[in-house]
Amino acid sequence: MNLKDKVAVVVGGSQGLGRALAEGMIKEGAHVIIASKNRELLEETALEIGADAHVVDVRSEQDIRAVADFAIQEFGKIDIWVNSAGQFKKFPMVDLLDMDRAHEMFDVNFFGSVLGSRTALLNMKE
């Protein structure tokens, strides 16, 4: 696959599947911006794989817009957007279900992807 000079944003790119995708795109010649909430891990990963880093909370539309704006300002476009941020919270028993943790997981996993997709499409539709 030829990704030379393509611009990719990988939200959740500091570890796991997101990191692997970011590394693969970099090896194929893409400019990659990884975004994550954990600044320390994000910056360490960006340095290791050769990506740009942007701190983002996927539950914040303002943060998601900021990473898109950064990509446009730095590279003039966004070609690829990956929503890879996610959480999994283990609940030992249904009666111990912490609803605050459940809402946080849903906000990250569902609304984080919705906000990311919406922002990417608005910037990529041209």
Structure in words:
The protein has 126 residues and is α/β, with parallel strands linked by helices. It has one domain: NAD(P)-binding Rossmann-like Domain (Rossmann fold). 51% of the residues lie in helices and 15% in strands. It has a 4-stranded parallel beta sheet with strand order 3-2-1-4, sandwiched between helices. Helix 1 (16-27) links the parallel strand 1 (7-11) and strand 2. The longest helix is centred in the C-terminal third of the chain and has 26 residues, at 99-124.
Tell me, what is the CATH class?
A: Alpha Beta
Largest sheet: 4 strands, parallel
Write down the Rg.
15 Å
- What is the approximate shape? globular
The structural domain count equals 1
Distance between the termini: 23 Å
Strand content: 15-25%
Helix/strand class: alpha/beta
The CATH topology is what? Rossmann fold
- Report the CATH superfamily: NAD(P)-binding Rossmann-like Domain
- Mean pLDDT, nearest integer? 91
- Helix-residue proportion: 40-55%
Stretches where pLDDT is under 50 for at least 5 consecutive residues are none
Number of strands: 4
Number of DSSP helices? Answer: 4
